[in-house]
Amino acid sequence: MDIAAEKNFTSIKLLRVMDVLGLTRDKALTEEFYYTLTALSREMLLSEYGQSEENVRKMMKEDKDTLMTYLGFIKFLETDLKYSPVASASKSISGQQYRKLVKKVAIGMMIRAESFTKLLQAKCPDYVRLSIHPSSGSVKLSVPLITQRNGDFPRTPWHSVCALSLSGGYSMTHAKDVRETHRLIRHKRLPYYFRERSDLWDWENDDVMFEPRYPNALHIYPLHTDSRALTADEADKLKALAGVYEGSLSVTGFTNAADVDAALTHPPTLPLAASQEMAAPLPTTTPAAGLAAGRAEVPAATVTSVA
C-alpha cells in the first residue's frame, strides 16, 4: 500500500481478505489491528466458504486452472520447504516421503485458495478478478506484473527477485541464480532489485541514483540537492550505456545534466502494452496491463484482487 501511495497509483485499491469480509470497514488498518484480525479472518474464510479436500481434488480433475495452481504450489514448495521448520524435523525421510509432505502442504494451500475464490464470487460478483498466476482466463485474467524477454510468464514476486540486465531487460528469478553476476541494489536501506554488474553503471555511489522506470526507461539523478556535475568519465560511461541499453536514458538534476542528456541517444519509451507484445503473447489484455501499471484504462472499481 505504501508503494502504491508513493508512486501515486490512484487507480489501484489494495484489499485483503479481512477487507472483503468487512472486518475493517470504516477503520484505519494499523499493523497492530491487522495482526488482531488474521486468525479471525482465516476462521471466517474457512467456516463460511471453506472447501473440503475431496471437493478440491475433484476440482483439480475437472478444472484446468485449479490443477495449474496446485502444480505451481508443488513446484515452489519442493524448494521452499527443504530448509523450513516444516521439514526440519523430518530430515531423514526419503525423497518419496518428502514429496508426500509437499503435497499435503499444497493441498492445505489449495483449500484456502479455493475458499478465497468462493469469497470473491459471493462478495464481488460483478467485479473483474486479476491474477499474477497463469490461468485459462475463464475465472480470472492473468496479468504479468513484469514481462520477461524470454516469453515466460513471470514468477510471483514473493517467490523471486527482480533482475535488470545491462540491456534493460527484466527477469523474475531466484536470488541464488544472480548473486554472482548481479549487484544487489538497495532503496531506503532495503533490498530493492538485482542489477547486472558493469562498469557502465557500477560507479553509482551515495549521491547518484540509477532508477529503472518500467518498462524500458532509466533515470539518472543526484540524491542530494548540493550542486554536483557529472565528470567527463561518468558522462562517457553514460553515453556507452545508452548504446547498449534498449530503452531511454534521462539525466536530470546535475549542473551539466542538459549537456550530458543531449549527448545520449533516446529511443522512444515503450508504452506498457507495446512492451508486452514485444516480449511474447501472454494471456492478458491491454486494459488489464494498464491496471498492472496503475493506469486508469479500466475503472478501478472493477478490480477486486490481484491474487
Topology:
Layout (H helix, E strand, L loop, with lengths): L1 H5 L10 H4 L10 H19 L3 H10 L1 H17 L4 H4 L6 H29 L4 E4 L9 E2 L18 E4 L5 E4 L8 E6 L2 E7 L11 E6 L3 E6 L9 H13 L3 E4 L5 H6 L9 H8 L6 H7 L10 E4 L1
Parallel strand pairs: 1-2, 1-10, 3-6, 8-9
Antiparallel strand pairs: 3-4, 5-6, 7-8
Helix pairs in contact: 3-7, 4-5, 5-7
Largest sheet: 4 strands, mixed
Q: Round the Cα radius of gyration to an integer and report it.
A: 23 Å
- Would you report the number of β strands? 10
Which percent range describes the beta-strand content? Answer: 15-25%
Give start-end ranges of low-pLDDT stretches.
Answer: 272-307
| Oligomeric state as shown | single chain
Return the string of H and E elements: HHHHHHHEEEEEEEEHEHHHE
Morphology: elongated
Average pLDDT:
81
Indicate the percent of residues in helices: 25-40%
- Number of alpha- plus pi-helical segments: 11
Major beta sheet, strand line-up = 4-3-6-5
Structural class: alpha/beta
